[in-house]
Design brief:
Blueprint (H helix, E strand, L loop, with lengths): L13 H4 L34 E5 L2 E5 L10 H19 L4 H12 L4 E9 L3 E8 L6 E6 L6 E4 L12 E8 L5 E8 L6 E6 L5 E6 L5 E5 L5 E6 L17 E6 L9 E4 L12 E6 L5 E7 L6 E7 L11 E4 L5 E7 L2 E6 L7 E6 L9 E4 L5 E7 L3 E8 L2 E8 L6 E2 L7 E6 L7 E6 L6 E6 L4 E4 L14 E9 L5 E9 L10 E5 L15 H6 L3 E5 L9 H5 L7 H16 L8 E6 L2 H11 L6 E5 L5 H4 L9 H4 L5 H10 L13 E7 L8 H13 L6 E6 L10 H19 L10
Parallel strand pairs: 33-34, 33-35, 35-36, 36-37, 37-38
Antiparallel strand pairs: 1-2, 3-4, 4-5, 5-6, 7-8, 8-9, 9-10, 11-12, 12-13, 13-14, 15-16, 16-17, 17-18, 19-20, 20-21, 21-22, 23-24, 24-25, 25-26, 27-28, 28-29, 29-30, 31-32, 32-34
Helix pairs in contact: 3-12, 6-7
Length: 743
């Protein structure tokens, strides 16, 4: 699929937030101990109050920790360090933590390798990232044919220096003939990628190195010696932080030339192209098409603007771009086959529809309806040689439709089992597609669909793990009534035979933003939680995309309160149905899910024992003034309008913390190189909660100085963080074996 790729807002960190814990101790109902919270150690380092008060539309907004936003201030840097030192000292005293790390590692390594980010080219050429069980970071591989010998192309660890940060692959794009690969590599989770070019046959770099290529988006031209890509502007030393992602452009690069002299292809300053400063321009070159597609992503907004131009004009200095569609057409994705343009749109179709028009004479308003809207939400489209493949989701079950070219009669593909489905690798020059399937209780498998036989077969690319099948674990789907009567889908996983007596350790996870659905996925590390008699629940709250665009809009901007109210309702449902109790309930959310967690504990602090708030968006009133703030305005709003401020203030957990309130135990995490949610947001929330809580329960700030938003973190970093999160929860639940000794 050729699709507009934004920075994903704050980032989709949900899978990491459900990667669960273990311990060698089994919880026995009725034997929970009271955690020794208050007397564990001395209090955390205090952040002094230095009040700043802003006024928006007649509303005074106090900000006692504004100075924490200056991360370069030595005093602020020292405060973060002492906070982390304190957190480490507290977590180190939890006796079950060491065993927890080992168990997490063992479960993680039960899968021989994890394969991701797969591409299939003509001639059976496969590219993919893979991390072996005991390796720290994924590497890029290539192989000829499914039975061919794989070959390592690049190991990002080669860029690491002794004592320096680790490196990770952010993206890669093979040339149309597979001879070259552009690859973006960045240090310490910063996502600040430098683009390089690798010759596939030799595995050596060509010497083409492009900085400020954080977005990347490289798309190769048919000559296989040149490509177009997005590059951020070069900032002046005195530039504002919010300038970082503004006015980026698409450039044309020919191998062996100086990238600083690359001509502009698409973006600001070009005749016939209307684009805002915070918009993200990309250009797609599709195999077999005589047109290049210009894409304008309006921040994190899902609806895009599309342009087209003759492919032969790209790189010539004069490109006649013509508009295909704009935001009002509500197109969120597209793909191309020759002159045929397929569009995914939710215009008068909340659960989406598929349209067809021609690039030579596009007319979206009169486009042919290929797949009409229905009960299932259409999630993705991808053009292959034989047909258009359409990915759908209905009630948590993924399906794939095959629409032969020239026909408007979709055929449903037969899949091996029910679960979440994704179109893994599709190419206009190759028949069929690759499909990835997994569920809450079945491990991921990568299947190849043969369009001739209409059968799917396991490619063997993803090795089997010891815990791919979990026969003793069951997953059920229920619906919890929210405050306004809306029924909220709730996925619940537990070990068969677990008693519903209100004492089960329970993790409730939620996100609810950007129209992103919380799809089923497998993780063997969950077993450790089930071994504790635990329950895992995933709330499919409004703001996500489970029921299409209407579900998204119902938890966005001024309606954002539905997101955490739905989450609270799901917690109440679990308690009412005796899955758990407030004393045994932890809530989990990351990134934009930090809004969900933060506002849940500020609205209902009595309902939860623990909050695990991961790289959380916490100060939404000030978020706009960070580098990633302007792109997020379409989702959350701006303080420059009265309604925008009203919505942002309401969803900002930092501004709803009240003094002398018995808050639950809270573990807040941040990566100090985070480009999406800058560390001062989690830092300010931690300072405010530490000063306000009257419960005597700990509020800890965990800082990783070799990480960012979680993207690009190493295996060890992920395992260590999981051990911290969940040993913290088990301690607070009073689970035996996790109770620190009295001082």
């Amino acid at each position: 699929m050729a699709q507009a790729h934004t920075r994903g807002g704050f980032g989709y960190l949900i899978p990491a937030s459900l990667a669960l814990l273990s311990a060698v101790f089994i919880a026995v109902p009725g034997t929970a101990q009271k955690p020794e919270s208050a007397a564990l150690t001395a209090p955390p380092p205090v952040a002094p109050v230095r009040m700043v008060t802003d006024e928006y539309f007649g509303v005074k907004v106090p900000d006692p920790y504004r100075y924490v936003e200056n991360l370069k201030d030595p005093a602020v840097a020292d405060w973060f360090k002492t906070q982390n030192d304190y957190t480490r000292s507290v977590l180190a005293r939890i006796p079950g933590r060491a065993a927890l790390v080992k168990r997490i590692e063992a479960l993680d390594e039960s899968v021989p390798a994890r394969v991701l980010d797969l591409r299939r080219l003509p001639g059976g050429l496969y590219f993919y990232q893979k991390r072996l069980a005991q390796e720290e970071i994924a590497k890029l591989y290539v192989r000829n044919g499914l039975n061919g010998k794989e070959r390592l192309l690049i190991d990002p660890a080669k860029f690491q220096r002794t004592g320096g940060p680790h490196y990770a692959i952010d993206y890669y794009n093979p040339s149309l003939d597979g001879r070259y690969v552009t690859i973006g590599i960045s240090p310490a989770g910063s996502e600040d990628a430098v683009m390089r070019v690798i010759a596939v046959q030799t595995g050596k770099e060509t010497g083409d190195i492009i900085e400020r290529a954080q977005i990347g988006g490289a798309s190769w031209l048919p000559d296989n010696r040149s490509f177009v890509y997005n590059r951020l502007q070069k900032l002046a030393p005195d530039a504002a932080p919010t300038d970082k992602y503004l006015n980026s452009r698409v450039y044309f690069h020919k191998l062996g030339t100086n990238p600083d002299q690359d001509p502009v292809v698409f973006g600001t300053g070009l005749a016939g192209v209307k684009i805002g400063a915070s918009d993200l321009p990309l250009v797609g070159v599709i195999p077999g098409s005589s047109h290049a597609i210009g894409v304008i992503a309006h921040g994190v907004q899902n609806e895009t603007t599309l342009y087209a131009a003759p492919l032969e004009s790209v790189g010539t200095g004069s490109i006649p771009w013509s508009k295909i569609c704009d935001v009002e057409d509500q197109v969120t994705a597209f793909d191309v086959r020759g002159d045929d343009l397929y569009l995914l749109s939710h215009l008068q179709a909340s659960r989406f529809k598929v349209l067809h028009t021609r690039l030579s004479a596009p007319n979206v308003s009169r486009a042919e309806l290929v797949v009409p809207p229905g009960q299932a939400v259409i999630r993705n489209i991808a053009a292959a040689e034989d047909a258009l493949y359409v990915q759908t989701m209905d009630g948590g079950i993924g399906r794939v439709l095959r629409v032969p070219y020239g026909s408007n009669k979709p055929e449903q593909m037969s899949l091996p089992f029910d679960g979440a489905v994704s179109l893994s690798a599709t190419d206009q020059r190759v028949s069929g597609t690759l499909v990835e399937i997994e569920s809450w209780t079945k491990g991921k498998t990568i299947y190849a669909y043969d369009a001739t036989t209409k059968r799917t077969a396991d490619t063997g690319l993803q090795p089997k793990g010891a815990f791919d099948e979990l026969p003793d674990i069951e997953s059920i789907e229920v619906k919890a009534p929210s405050y306004d009567g809306t029924l909220i889908p709730l996925s619940i996983m537990r070990k068969k035979g677990v008693n519903l007596n209100g004492s089960n350790p329970t993790l409730l996870d939620g996100y609810g933003a950007y129209g992103i659905s919380h799809d089923p996925y497998s993780d063997p590390r969950r077993l450790a939680w089930f071994e504790q008699g635990g329950v895992i629940a995933v709330a499919h709250i409004r703001g996500g995309g489970e029921y299409g665009e209407d579900w998204h809009v119902a938890g966005k901007g001024l309606t954002k309160q539905n997101t955490w109210k739905d989450f609270i309702a799901c917690a109440e449902f679990l308690i009412k149905e005796k899955y758990t109790s407030p004393a045994h309930l932890a809530i989990v959310g990351g990134s934009a899910g930090g809004i969900t967690v933060g506002r849940s504990i500020t609205e209902r602090p009595d309902l939860f024992a623990v909050a695990l708030d991961l790289v959380p968006a916490s100060d939404l009133v000030r978020m706009e003034f960070t580098p990633n703030g302007p792109p997020n305005i379409p989702e959350f709003g701006t303080v420059k309008t009265q309604d925008g401020f009203k919505g942002l203030y309401e969803m900002s957990a930092y501004h709803h913390v009240k003094d002398e309130t018995p808050y639950p135990a809270v573990l807040i995490t941040t990566g100090f190189n985070d480009p999406r949610v800058i560390s001062w947001e989690p830092g300010k929330l931690a300072a405010r909660l530490q000063a306000a809580t009257s419960s005597g329960k700990p509020v800890l700030l965990r800082v990783d100085y070799d990480a960012g938003h979680g993207i690009g973190s190493t295996k060890s970093q992920q395992d260590e963080e999981l051990a911290d999160r969940f040993s913290f929860a088990l301690w607070q639940f009073g689970v035996p074996g996790f109770q620190p000794p009295m001082p």
